[in-house]
Every structure is written in structure tokens, then in C-alpha cells.
From TrEMBL:
Renumbered ranges of WD repeats: 217-256, 295-336
The gene coding this protein: FBXW2
Species in which this protein is naturally found: Macaca nemestrina
Boundaries of every F-box domain copy: 127-174
CDD domains in alphabetical order: F-box_FBXW2, WD40
Listed name of the protein: F-box/WD repeat-containing protein 2
Job of this protein: Substrate-recognition component of the SCF (SKP1-CUL1-F-box protein)-type E3 ubiquitin ligase complex.
Length: 527
């Protein structure tokens, strides 16, 4: 190469200087998005030259030092002209020729130039976008990653772990997708990451059929016909003319009182209400065991009872095809509801939560069910009041309903041989029919916003209602079958609306056994 800055006009640029300058230009040309201004390439070239000529001094400020160097080696103007020429030539090459040129320049480079090249390439090629991007934009990008990938990304560096762990919305969404309840008022991102880790463990236990454990209650001497669960306590009514109240967590019997033969039970802290095969309903005091009220009037066994202290009303469903409404404190019959043509196996007294032409939020509603129909009644003291609505799954009565009924004030759910039927209580329309073709005759135990609890003769099942798929099952022993559905029940129900890390404890399912014991399925403690 020739220039005009040396003796005789001939000047051979030093190899390290050419190498650094050419590579700096090449990097800037090949990665134009890295340029922050028109002078960046020139500044980078100057610094490279300074380091190559005098690495001990480094690329000092523009002035006397840089001017002296260019005066001794090549005038700056001549150097820039030479560099422009070689840049134009380089850009005209093919990719293969460019690569060969770079290989040749690298082979001519010394340790200082290679270190310089390495430092610049690492900065240009290994961009930590989570560190450079605004936090809000990082959070937006992270929302598109699945939780397992997010956990892997947390292992990249402390900075990544800090940013990912701080994204509240990401972890809340991950928990929601697993069917967990979210309290939006809690904005501690680390809290939600821990909740997610806890959730993923519980969901894996469900998938692997390892989420539950079993226990037994032993104390009755004859068949147990009736079960009722509330707040950690399980009441059992037996053919041995007794009713017992059990603490599920300890397995201890809290109360045991002498009664009639119980076909249905319901209790609170002070009293027990029983329906009997002797065609009567009775109210008992736990503390003394005394019968405080006796309700006579049915001509068949009483299979279901419900009551409300605020209304001072008790309702009962019987094998005589009627539903009776009683004054709870006085023991007198207020009304007899007719219209059923089969045993009334379930009555539910519940406050309405939606508005329709027939009722308003806050109104109390009575539901009664037999083998084929669900009837909806107003609660009042009118004699021979008319049924508001009758629901069924087949007009010709070809399809039977399972003896379980769910009503939460907004929806009515019942199972049949065709699947689960869900009615909207505001319109009485069928919202959906959930079918499980792989498993026939699933019976309903519990129904929530996220999960449903079902069972058949062999297994207990959990269904994700968002996908209508079975996500877990648990084997059941040969329990006592009941056409009325009174000898088995679900336990805690809040988790059906979404797990939260605290409500997956206590009783899941209970059923009476042929040996007169009670078989319990309970949540296993978190690992």
C-alpha cells in the first residue's frame, strides 16, 4: 500500500494497526444498528489504533497524544482515506471472501488486538436484554413464556432471577392456569412465585394420584345410613339407634347420643336434626342428648332434611312423594308440597343469588329432587303453593337423575347417565352438559367454579371444569351402595372454586362401609 506520509511516499501500515482498524470498521458495517451516531465508528477506530500502538497508555482523550501518534505513523486524513478505500473493497467481497479476509486479519493479530476484539464482540453479541430493557417491557415479554421456562430462566443469572421473580402478573397468571384462587390485593411477586411452586407440587401429586390419604372411623355397631359434614366435624346416623359427631382431624368421637334409626342428618353447634325410617323428623340437643322436637306427619320414611334458623323453617323429603315445611321451633307443619311421583331423596333450602321473573337475590328457595325431576318451590306459609319450575333431562323419563343435587344460589347441577347437567337459575336454561364417554355413570359429589368431585363404584375423580377433563383419581374400597345417596358425601368444598394453598386440607370424601365403619379420604399434607 502507498500513501503520502512516509519517506519517499511509501508507507506499510503496521499489521496490528491495520487489523484493529479493519475489524472495528467491519463490526460497525456488519452491525449498523449498534451505531449511536455518525462518529462512533471513527471513535472506535481511533481507540483501537491507540491501544494497538501504545496499550499501556490506553485510548486517552483526543489531543496531543493522538495527534503525535498519527504524526509519527500516518496523517489522520491519509489514514481515513486509506480506511475508506479498504472498506469499499471489503464491502464488495462475497461472504466467503469476507470470512477469509477476517481469518487472515485475525491470524496477523497479536494478543492485544485479540483481547480488544474479544471484548467488543462480547458486548455486541451477548446482549442481556432483561438488563437493558425497561422493566415494564421485560414483564410484558415474560408473560409469553410458560412457567417451566420461567423457572429455567431464573437460573441464568442473579439479575434474571431478580427480574422474573419481581413480575407479579406472570406468577399470578401461572397460578390461575393451574386452577388456584388469586387475591389481587397481594402484590408481592415473590409471594406468588412461592405459591406457584407450591401449586405445581400439589397438581403433580394429583396427577400422580398421591394427593390423598385414607383413614377410618370405628364406633357404630350397625349399618350407617346417614352422613353430614361441616367445619371439620362429621355426623353419622346408624341403624344402631345412635348418632355420633366425629372430629375428622383426630378421629375422636365428640358426641354420641341415642336416637331413632337415622336416614338423614344435619347439625350445628347446638342441635342435631334427623330424618328417620319411622316416618318422623326429630331435633336433638347435643349436650344433653334430649329430643327437643318431634315432627310427625309423613307416611313414609324421611330421606332428606334441611333447615334455616333465620327463617325458623325445617323442610323434609319423604318416600310418601311429598315435601313438608315445618316450623322449626314449634314443630308444627306449615305446608305439604305435592307433585312428585317418586321418592323425594333430596331437599335443599338455599338463598337465591340471582334475579329472575320468579325470584330476587336474597329470596329463600326450596329445591326437591326425585328419580326423574327437580322441583323449585317458593318458601311461604301458603297452603298447597304451586311449584315454580320443574327441571328434567328427558321428557319421557327415560333418563334417571343420580341422587345428588348441587345448588349454590346461581346454578343447579345434577348428574345422570348422560353426564353432568348444569342449569342457570336465573333462566332455568341448561348451560351445559358435561359428558365423560370414557367413564359411564359418574355420580356428583361436589361442583365449583374450577373443579368438580365425582365418583363411581371404583374411583374418586377430580374434573377440571375449564377443560372438562379428569385430572386425578383415587381408588375406593367396596363401600356400601345407597340409592338415596345418603351414605356418601364430599367433605371440604371451598377448593372446588380454586385451590389457594390453604384450603386443600381436611376431608375430601366419606362413605359408610359394610363393616359399619366410615372410610375417609383426606388431603395429604404438602411435601
Amino acid at each position: 500500500m502507498r500513501g503520502g506520509a512516509g519517506r519517499g511516499g511509501d508507507f506499510q501500515a503496521p499489521a496490528p494497526l491495520l487489523t484493529c482498524r479493519a475489524l472495528a470498521v467491519f463490526i460497525s458495517l456488519q452491525a449498523p444498528w449498534l451505531r449511536s451516531g455518525p462518529g462512533r465508528c471513527e471513535a472506535l477506530a481511533a481507540r483501537a489504533c491507540l491501544v494497538a500502538v501504545n496499550p499501556a497508555r490506553g485510548p486517552g482523550p483526543r489531543g496531543a497524544r493522538s495527534g503525535k501518534i498519527f504524526h509519527n505513523l500516518m496523517e489522520r486524513k491519509d489514514f481515513e482515506t486509506w480506511l475508506d478505500n479498504i472498506s469499499v473493497t471489503f464491502l464488495s467481497l462475497t461472504d466467503l471472501q469476507k470470512n477469509e479476509t477476517l481469518d487472515h486479519l485475525i491470524s496477523l493479530s497479536g494478543a492485544v488486538q485479540l483481547r480488544h476484539l474479544s471484548n467488543n464482540l462480547e458486548t455486541l453479541l451477548k446482549r442481556d436484554f432483561l438488563k437493558l430493557l425497561p422493566l415494564e417491557l421485560s414483564f410484558y415479554l415474560l408473560k409469553w413464556l410458560d412457567p417451566q421456562t420461567l423457572l429455567t430462566c431464573c437460573l441464568v443469572s442473579k439479575q434474571w432471577n431478580k427480574v422474573i421473580s419481581a413480575c407479579t402478573e406472570v406468577w399470578q397468571t401461572a397460578c390461575k392456569n393451574l386452577g388456584w384462587q388469586i387475591d389481587d390485593s397481594v402484590q408481592d411477586a415473590l409471594h406468588w412465585k412461592k405459591v406457584y411452586l407450591k401449586a405445581i407440587l400439589r397438581m403433580k401429586q394429583l396427577e400422580d394420584h398421591e394427593a390423598f390419604e385414607t383413614s377410618s372411623l370405628i364406633g357404630h355397631s350397625a349399618r350407617v345410613y346417614a352422613l353430614y359434614y361441616k367445619d371439620g366435624l362429621l355426623c353419622t346416623g346408624s341403624d344402631d339407634l345412635s348418632a355420633k359427631l366425629w372430629d375428622v382431624s383426630t378421629g375422636q368421637c365428640v358426641y354420641g347420643i341415642q336416637t331413632h334409626t337415622c336416614a338423614a342428618v344435619k347439625f350445628d353447634e347446638q342441635k342435631l336434626v334427623t330424618g328417620s325410617f319411622d316416618n318422623t323428623v326429630a331435633c336433638w340437643e347435643w349436650s344433653s342428648g334430649a329430643r327437643t322436637q318431634h315432627f310427625r306427619g309423613h307416611t313414609g320414611a324421611v330421606f332428606s332434611v334441611d333447615y334455616n334458623d333465620e327463617l325458623d323453617v325445617l323442610v323434609s323429603g319423604s318416600a310418601d312423594f311429598t315435601v313438608k315445611v315445618w316450623a322449626l321451633s314449634a314443630g308444627t307443619c306449615l305446608n305439604t308440597l305435592t307433585g312428585h311421583t317418586e321418592w323425594v331423596t333430596k331437599v335443599v333450602l338455599q338463598k337465591c343469588k340471582v334475579k329472575s321473573l320468579l325470584h330476587s337475590p336474597g329470596d329463600y328457595i326450596l329445591l326437591s329432587a326425585d328419580k326423574y325431576e327437580i322441583k323449585i318451590w317458593p318458601i311461604g306459609r301458603e297452603i298447597n303453593c304451586k311449584c315454580l319450575k320443574t327441571l328434567s333431562v328427558s321428557e319421557d323419563r327415560s333418563i334417571c337423575l343420580q341422587p345428588r343435587l348441587h345448588f349454590d344460589g346461581k346454578y343447579i347441577v345434577c348428574s345422570s347417565a348422560l353426564g353432568l347437567y348444569q342449569w342457570d337459575f336465573a333462566s332455568y336454561d341448561i348451560l351445559r352438559v358435561i359428558k365423560t364417554p370414557e367413564i359411564a355413570n359418574l355420580a356428583l359429589l361436589g361442583f365449583g367454579d374450577i373443579f368438580a368431585l365425582l365418583f363411581d363404584n371404583r374411583y374418586l375423580y377430580i374434573m377440571d371444569l375449564r377443560t372438562e377433563s379428569l385430572i386425578s383419581r383415587w381408588p375406593l374400597p367396596e363401600y356400601r351402595k345407597s340409592k338415596r345417596g345418603s351414605s356418601f358425601l364430599a367433605g371440604e368444598a371451598s377448593w372446588l372454586n380454586g385451590l389457594d394453598g390453604h384450603n386443600d386440607t381436611g376431608l375430601v370424601f366419606a362413605t359408610s362401609m359394610p363393616d359399619h365403619s366410615i372410610h375417609l379420604v383426606l388431603w395429604k399434607e404438602h411435601g
